[in-house]
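Troubleshooting: if your tokenizer reports a length mismatch, compare against these two reference records.
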Amino acid sequence: MRTALGDALTERREFVRTVGTHREDGSYVVARRGADSSGHRKVFESFAALRRLYDRLPDEFTAEEVGRSGLTGGRRHMLVHHVAEHPAFECELDKRQPLTASKVRAESGGETED
């Protein structure tokens, strides 16, 4: 079974706390770095599915808000860490307790918000 799983993996990218893997079947797997059990990973049908989940989150979000999509337990926290670590998402961690991240907005030509 491990051999079959290994053959299915096509691109693996490690970050500080998480790992993202694009599989040949088009799915995208987010896993806690160094963890072996399925309780520490979430399989999305595609990277675009993860992007849609991220796009639905508010500008500042907690693990609890990620959980509203149906994720439970440590997977919620893992996802918050993953989007903060992955360069495809303009996101950064704000607080560890409660785990909170915010979407980073690009500067808009010197204009400031009041």
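Reference record two:
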Amino acid sequence: MTSFGTWINTMLFGRKVGSDEFGNRYYTKARGSLYGRERRWVIYNGRVEASKIPSEWHAWLHQTVDAPLSEAAAQPKEWQLGHIPNLTGTRGAYVPEGSDLATGLETPRRGVEAWRP
């Protein structure tokens, strides 16, 4: 969720550069620069999660490249997997085989008893 201040700043000073397959929108400051560097930012689609930014846009945001990759260059090769955001803390999180979470138990209970002095 974008804060009110970021939304106002984007409407007044932002120039849209593009968007990615997740619906995130990328902006740059329409005029001027800060310390000789162009200001760049992202407005997330949905929950704010930095791992939702694909590598080509990450490079642009951090000023590794001057322009974002073209749509054709951003397409994955046939041997590459698609970008997947970090799913930790969600229902899609990785759960190893044999984990209590994989069996549906909320707390570890396998043969463990509380210690009593």
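Descriptive notes for reference record two:
- Residues 4-82 form one domain.
- The two ends are 51 Å apart (CA to CA).
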